[in-house]
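Q: I'm building a small set of examples for a reading group on sequence design. Run inverse folding on the following structure and report the sequence directly after it, with nothing in between.
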């Protein structure tokens, strides 16, 4: 296929070689499944777009734009694509469905990389009702899984993240989470299938034994466990995965974590501030008041939030078990009771759709909030980790809330509490001309958490992957050196997702992030 004019190409590759490589892939998977530019072929995004890249790009436009995309539909096609990529040294960036919003979407770290888009691999291979597990390909979304369970009237409760259109497999590999008792999704994974860069297929755990029925049931396997090598990494392409189903901030956070460790609370609770609660309200009057300042380049003042709090009787922090929270001044409680019909099980369809999907009902209701500071804006998630006690989290929160307010952004606090840690997610929504300011603020929060609180993120945007990797500096960065050695061994031509989580081949110059 001839393509003329100025265009984005993979680093170090001329246009003739690039076209020849994509033509070779098109001969295998079909021309309709190959994009020779970043325009077209992706799943529809939040603004109705179908191009590849980061729809919420903060820095220079096109700094992470891919050169094209390929969309295989089966494992054998993935193997063939990798053989072609090795022959031409064509760099690939793997995405499951490309819905990694707030962390880079379908954009690669290295500009000009070709997206290996797996959304056409969308088979729900098995949903086992008796043993409560699902075997999925990368293109299966949380909506797909929920609808299959609902259609077949299975007594299973899926766990879903805030936005249900993402990949189940992709969310697990990024260590994403949901809100049910099985909300730590990476802990529910039990075996996976990986295509290595040379095209060889590997299965982990008991799946490594041919025709073994224990593959989806026993995570340990035999000998060394290697599943975690493929979390947030670029050491292979995961094509199948088993998913098993089943303001006194310090006091509040510590109590929530203790109740989880003691299994009093089974769901995964969150701590949110007034802005986060009201920004997703279904009351138009509240939405208009709390979002209007941001649409004009400002932020909702504390005075406004306090006034709305008094009139609408909304608590500053969410509480769940009243007796455990007597030490939290001013705490308010609310509860909804849902009961099955006599002799029947309670099903998801018997319950309302909640703003936070604690019941496993996937939604997209949070998407409109991303345009509240102007259409075409975006958001980024800063996601540091803190101990469960609450003291360290509160000290960091005071700094973060002050700086975000000083920069005239709204603080959208969405803190996810687990038994032994808290993910203190701050969602920063910015307008179409505010990306640079949001970027600078993110950098400041990242440095402050690293240097003053000795912590870092569990997951990050493509702009910061190498910087976050540098935080893991014990013994002169021994972990990073070890993983780089694995990268050299498993991907000698460096064709898979260069720069993912700060992992680079030695043959590739690191992008200055």
């Amino acid at each position: 296929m001839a393509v003329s004019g100025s265009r984005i190409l993979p680093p170090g590759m001329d246009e003739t070689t690039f076209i020849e490589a994509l033509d070779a892939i098109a001969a295998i998977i079909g021309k309709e499944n190959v994009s020779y530019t970043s325009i077209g072929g992706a799943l529809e995004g939040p603004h109705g777009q179908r191009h590849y890249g980061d729809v919420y790009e903060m820095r220079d436009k096109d700094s992470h734009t891919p050169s094209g995309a390929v969309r295989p539909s089966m494992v054998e096609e993935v193997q063939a694509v990798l053989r072609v990529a090795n022959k031409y040294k064509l760099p690939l960036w793997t995405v499951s469905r490309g819905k990694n919003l707030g962390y880079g979407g379908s954009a690669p770290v290295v500009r000009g990389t070709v997206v290996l888009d797996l959304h056409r691999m969308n088979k729900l291979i098995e949903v086992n009702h008796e043993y409560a597990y699902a075997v999925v390909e990368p293109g299966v979304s949380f909506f797909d899984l929920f609808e299959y369970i609902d259609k077949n009237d299975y007594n299973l409760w899926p766990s879903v993240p805030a936005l249900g259109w993402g990949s189940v497999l992709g969310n697990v590999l990024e260590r994403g989470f949901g809100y049910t008792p099985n909300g730590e999704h990476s802990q529910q994974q039990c075996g996976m299938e990986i295509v290595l860069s040379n095209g060889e297929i590997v299965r982990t755990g008991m799946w490594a034994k041919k025709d073994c029925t224990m593959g989806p049931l026993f995570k340990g396997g035999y000998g060394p466990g290697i599943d975690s090598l493929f979390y947030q990494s670029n050491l292979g392409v995961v094509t199948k995965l088993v998913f098993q189903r089943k303001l006194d901030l310090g006091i509040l956070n510590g109590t929530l974590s203790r109740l989880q460790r003691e299994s009093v609370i089974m769901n995964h609770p969150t701590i949110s501030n007034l802005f986060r609660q009201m920004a997703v309200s279904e009351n138009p009057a509240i939405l208009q008041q709390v979002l209007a300042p941001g649409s004009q380049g400002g932020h909702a003042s504390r005075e406004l939030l306090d006034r709305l709090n008094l009139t609408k009787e909304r608590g500053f922090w969410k509480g769940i078990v009243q007796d455990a929270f007597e030490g939290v001044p001013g705490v308010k409680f609310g509860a909804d009771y849902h009961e099955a019909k006599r002799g029947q099980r309670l099903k998801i369809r018997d319950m309302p759709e909640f703003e936070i999907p604690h019941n496993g009902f996937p939604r997209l209701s949070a998407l409109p909030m991303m345009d509240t500071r102007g259409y075409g804006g975006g958001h980024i998630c800063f996601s540091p980790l803190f101990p469960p006690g609450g003291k360290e989290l509160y000290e960091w929160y005071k700094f973060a809330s002050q700086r975000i307010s000083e920069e005239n952004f709204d603080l959208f606090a969405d803190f996810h509490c687990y038994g032994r840690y808290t993910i203190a997610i701050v969602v920063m929504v910015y307008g179409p001309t505010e990306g640079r300011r949001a970027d600078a603020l993110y950098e400041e929060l990242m440095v402050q958490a690293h240097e003053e609180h000795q912590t870092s993120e569990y997951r990050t945007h493509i702009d910061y992957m190498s910087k976050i990797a540098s935080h893991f500096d014990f013994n002169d960065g021994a972990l990073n050196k070890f993983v780089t050695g694995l990268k050299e061994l498993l991907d000698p031509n460096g064709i898979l997702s260069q720069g993912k989580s700060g992992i680079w081949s030695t043959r590739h110059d690191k992008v200055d992030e």
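The mean pLDDT is 84.
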